[in-house]
Design goal:
This protein has a single domain, classed as MetI-like (MetI-like fold, Orthogonal Bundle), CATH 1.10.3720. About 75% of the residues lie in helices and about 0% in strands. Helix 1 runs antiparallel to helix 6, helix 2 crosses helix 4 and helix 3 crosses helix 4.
Length: about 160
């Protein structure tokens, strides 16, 4: 599950970081809001909100799907911030040198900056993926058994203790 989650979260996170580099202010505010929201909420809260909250709008994801989605959103938020840090950590001289050769902003970003940024982001992305892997243990609240405990308790007769 973690490798699937990390492979699904990284491309959207990289795309959000690239969109953020365009410096369109309202878009940046929206990206920063979403990223900060998912970075600040504990993953267990996101799992519970998806698993118990979505049935109120007639969507009932399974425990696996709600855990997968929530951990993918949390990893996407952290990954976007890591990609953004990688993009901003490339020296300004690299940008200027690429632009002076006649490359456009997009060509500079894709051909010069992004390859360097991706190399810089491998260690923190690996660290985050390991942390998300540990977060899979949080799926216990969305497993089938907690929801059925109440029903099971009502069906089972009360045990009687024999008297001596």
């Amino acid at each position: 599950m973690p490798s699937s989650s990390s492979s699904r979260a990284s491309p959207p996170a990289c795309a959000l970081a690239l969109l953020r580099s365009l410096a369109i202010r309202p878009l940046n505010w929206l990206i920063i809001f979403v990223v900060d929201l998912f970075r600040s909420l504990p993953p267990l809260v996101v799992i519970v909100l998806i698993y118990f909250g979505l049935p109120s709008v007639d969507l009932s994801p399974s425990g696996f799907v709600s855990t997968w989605l929530s951990l993918a959103f949390v990893l996407m938020a952290f990954s976007e911030e890591i990609f953004w840090a990688g993009i901003t950590s490339v020296a300004k001289g690299q940008w200027e040198a690429a632009r002076s050769t006649g490359l456009s902003f997009g060509q500079t970003l894709m051909s010069v900056v992004l390859p360097q940024a991706l190399r810089l982001t491998i260690p923190p992305l690996t660290n985050r993926t390991i942390a998300i892997t540990k977060g899979t243990a949080l799926s216990a609240p969305s497993s089938p058994s907690p929801r059925s405990w109440g029903r099971r308790a009502r069906r089972c007769p009360t045990p009687t203790i024999p008297r001596r």
